[in-house]
Design goal:
Heat Shock Protein 90, alpha+beta, 15 helices, six-stranded mixed sheet, 497 residues, 3 domains, 31% helix, eight-stranded mixed sheet
């Protein structure tokens, strides 16, 4: 027997107000709008932020193929497309909701005007006018709101293109919001879009040009491709699946010491070095997830830690993978399917290990010329209770003191033991976490004169007490931490002025 049914359409205002709480940032919302432009074949998208207090607005103009009246009505309808339907390979959409949900998250009035083959159409959603409708109907209004006609004039004279207009931006311009806040928002949005669309904005064949208030948005490349100091990049690896090929490429970025101050700041990313580590998930070259470890890990999920901040992994999925990867409506989260997790975990573990070694390279000095080990000042002892850090008594400077100490040797040994037992490990760890950088060591930041002053004492001891020649003493110094970093200064030792 057929079940009885009832029609239960949602009330327009209740539904629309609920959709406003999906959690879009302004940058993420605008990225969703730009996705539609890219899917429409646009090569240029212009974003304009206009400050006018509560009447501030944002417009997005593209040179895509535009829409006829029926297509516009379909685009403005909520849930017009089934997310289970197949999409074209280049399509950046999925749910058929992005234009509306992204816009409603920021504004109460959404107007879309479009031109196709010289024929223009314009429709708008207006939440305030809908609120006044006692019947709760789903009413699309034709044309712009009164007084807003000039805001879509950029379409005049064009044969194709679309403009999206946000007005009544109550989720942006809140109580106490100032023009300074609005300009800060512009900077934040620029950083976000530079990251999300960087692969479309860069390369020998640029696919997209984004302009923000007339200024071109420069791409932000998370992987520092082509930088000479970059220590490691893996070859791309393809993994076939039922829904297409998944491609990954791992990257370890240069240590801070290998970058200029400007490079270090520029490559930190919108959220900073630590937050930007991890996987970067792309679909059709559009960034979905910027950093994080996708819930992967061994015994428990990995966190974003300072030691792994140089690890970034590019991961490309086809748009047929949305369901398997649990892509959300905001295109901001992804979860790898169970079948791929072991492979991705192993790859990420290798990348994290490489990144950790680069991050902590000061602790393991590179061998000198001829692969001769560096005489290190500290050694690590691994005991049942954990790790201990000990002063290496065979280090030339320590050995020189101990060999010349005579009756003071026990006192000096006691002093060394006190230093070992009072290394401020917790303070070093805390300062590193808070300052987002490792403490300065190895005379970093010190003038050359200071390095020479300390080095000369050890150099003279090698010559006077050990009887080494000047050349032998220099070679010995170049095998001794931290002087191996200063070959030019060491070369000057023993030279006649």
């Amino acid at each position: 027997m057929k079940s009885k049914t009832r029609s239960a359409p949602p009330r327009a205002m209740a539904m629309l107000e609920s959709l406003r709480g999906l959690g879009y940032s302004t940058g993420a919302a605008l990225a969703d709008i730009i996705d539609n432009s890219v899917s429409a074949g646009a090569s240029e998208v212009r974003l304009d932020f206009a400050w006018d207090g509560p009447n501030s607005r944002i417009t997005v103009l593209d040179d895509g193929r535009g829409m006829d009246d029926a297509e516009l009505e379909s685009a403005m309808r909520l849930g017009d497309k089934n997310p289970l339907d197949a999409r074209l390979a280049h399509d950046l959409g999925r749910f058929g909701m992005g234009l509306k949900t992204a816009s409603f998250s920021q504004c109460r009035r959404l107007t879309v005007a479009t031109v196709k083959n010289g024929s223009a159409s314009c429709l708008r959603w207006d939440l305030d006018e809908l609120a006044a409708d006692l019947d709760g109907d789903w009413l699309l209004f034709e044309g712009t709101a009164q007084g807003s006609e000039s805001f879509i004039e950029s379409l005049k004279g064009k044969k194709t293109g679309t403009v999206v207009l946000w007005e009544e931006m109550d989720r942006v311009v809140t109580a106490g919001y100032t023009s300074d806040d609005f300009h800060d928002l512009i900077d934040t949005v620029e950083s976000h879009l530079a990251m999300v669309f960087h692969r479309l904005l860069q390369g020998s064949f640029v696919k997209l040009k984004l302009l923000l208030n007339g200024r071109a948005i420069a791409p932000w490349d998370p992987f520092m491709m082509g930088h000479p100091a970059k220590p490691w990049t893996s070859p791309p690896t393809n993994h076939p699946t039922d829904y297409g090929t998944v491609t990954v490429q791992a990257h370890v970025l240069p240590h801070r010491d290998k970058l200029t101050a400007a490079e270090f700041e520029d490559n930190a990313g919108p959220a900073g070095w630590t937050a930007q580590q991890g996987f970067y998930v792309y679909r059709n070259a559009r960034l979905l997830v910027a950093g994080g470890w996708l819930g992967l890990g061994n015994s428990r999920a990995w966190n974003r830690e300072e030691a792994h901040r140089l690890a970034r992994i590019r991961l490309d999925i086809p748009n047929t993978a949305d369901a398997d990867w649990k892509i959300d409506i905001r295109k901001s989260t992804a979860r790898p399917p169970v079948s791929l997790r072991p492979w991705l975990t192993l790859l990420a573990e290798n990348t994290r290990d490489r990144a950790r070694r680069v991050f902590a390279y000061r602790g393991t000095p590179a061998p000198a010329k001829g692969n001769i080990p560096i005489e290190q000042a500290w050694r690590v002892e691994r005991v049942k209770a954990g790790m201990r850090y000990r002063i290496e008594e065979t280090h030339p400077s320590v050995a020189a003191v101990m060999e010349s100490a005579g009756a003071l040797a026990p006192l000096i040994k006691s002093m060394l033991r006190v230093i070992e037992e009072t290394v401020p490990v917790q303070r070093i760890w805390l300062d590193t976490a808070e300052n987002k950088e490792t403490p300065r060591t190895g005379f970093e930041g010190e003038p050359n004169a200071t390095v020479i002053e300390v080095a000369r004492v050890l150099f003279d001891d090698l010559i006077e007490r050990k009887g080494l020649s000047v050349e032998e003493a220099r070679k010995s110094m170049l095998r001794t931490e931290p002087f191996q970093k200063y070959p030019a200064l060491i070369e000057k030792l023993g030279s006649k002025k």
